[in-house]
Specification:
By secondary structure, the chain is an alpha+beta fold. It has one domain: Glutaredoxin (3-Layer(aba) Sandwich), CATH 3.40.30.10. It has a 5-stranded mixed sheet with strand order 2-1-3-4-5, with helices on one face. Helix 1 crosses helix 2. It is globular and about 50 Å long. The two termini are 20 Å apart. The model has no long low-confidence stretch (mean pLDDT 93).
Length: 122
């Protein structure tokens, strides 16, 4: 199954309006994640994951596996590397669960929710 990183491209962190405002913080993080993920996992952008109080937000998902929402990321390379690194581990896991000791440091403390897979069949 394909693992996807869904990236909120409308996220704006506190102080966003103090910068050049050419791009949202979500757009900046999305660009970094997309470059880091190329050829490893799939990415897509959506407008609003409704986690505005904890932006920048991403979701890591795959059919039949646990799904995770992560947030409170700065739009920086270290965050993108950690998110993609975790998504690769998620892809390798049969259930989507990754042992804590394997988590990239950059994603620790950023988990918001975990969703069980949807039931299959009827």
């Amino acid at each position: 199954m394909t693992t996807w990183i869904t990236i909120c491209d409308t996220c704006k962190r506190d102080g966003w309006d103090q910068g050049d405002m050419a791009l949202t913080d979500g757009e900046r993080l999305a660009t970094l994640i997309e470059a880091e993920a190329e050829g490893a996992v799939k990415t897509r952008r959506v407008s609003c994951l409704m986690g505005c109080a904890r932006g920048c937000n991403v979701a890591i998902q795959s059919e039949g596996k646990l799904a995770y929402t992560l947030g409170d990321f700065a739009p920086e390379q270290e965050a993108a590397e950690g998110i993609v690194g975790y998504a690769k581990l998620h892809a390798e896991s049969a259930t989507g669960q990754v042992p804590y000791r394997e988590w990239p440091q950059a994603i620790k403390g950023h988990f918001i929710t975990r969703h069980p897979p949807l039931p299959s069949g009827k």
